[in-house]
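A quick aside before the break. I want you to see a complete sequence-to-structure record at least once, exactly as it would be stored in a machine-readable document. Don't worry about memorizing anything.
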Amino acid sequence: MHNLKRKLIDFIKKTDIIKKINYSKFVFYFLFGLKSRFGQFKININTKCLVLSQYPGAETKGLGGLAAQYPKNFEILCLTNGSNMIENYDPIESAGIKKQQFQDVMKTIRIKGSKIFDIDSGTLKNHYATFKKIDISEIDYIFIPNVYDNNIDTIALLQHFKQILKDKEFKPELKILMYESDFPLCTLDYYIDISPIIETKKKMLKTYYPEDKFPNLVDKITGINAFRSIQHNCEYCEAFMAFTPEEFIKIPLI
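That is the input. The structure line, written in tokens, reads:
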């Protein structure tokens, strides 16, 4: 069966059918299981990680545990201010609350560097001039949201990020890791055991989603972390899909 599968994959590659029917890397790997490695993500004392978040809280959903374990290695940039995220509040009030929540979460884990941009929700597509100021020249890993997240600012973030990869210098060994915020990834490369720090992640999430206003939501969010841990000897883990810059640039976006 394995040999038959391999022959089919080789045939598809030779005929270039993937390119002709515009399959993304996601679909190709999902169907044929090429991304079978699912190793533990490790960083050292000098590793530099940059997180790009499409709204306040997305970064904590996707990799709050990882960032909390290695705060000195991380810079987190939230590209929009959450101006439309709180019902019954006007955009200025909502943005003020979400900004304070973001700053409180970053303070909780003593992150090395963080910033929330004053860009209204839903308008990131109009702000490439701001986005292109982000320095990626010394970064080892850049974390971005899932390309399939159904969010207008996620799409804009990924489009802008593609452009800065074309316009700016970066390390030859740079790796891009997608994280799970609004939707799960269809296939995975790395995981990180966050069991020892899961209570910290829950505390971070409760800053954004307090129990009195969002009953059981934190447990539901961390449910995917529990699910991802089934394949490993731990209770909770975060998972990521890895790309080289060249691979990421080729991913078709909506």
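Two observations worth writing down. The domain at 37-250 is CATH 3.40.50.10320 (Rossmann fold). Strands lie at 39-40, 49-53, 74-78, 113-116, 141-145, 175-179, 190-193, 237-243. We'll return to this after the break.
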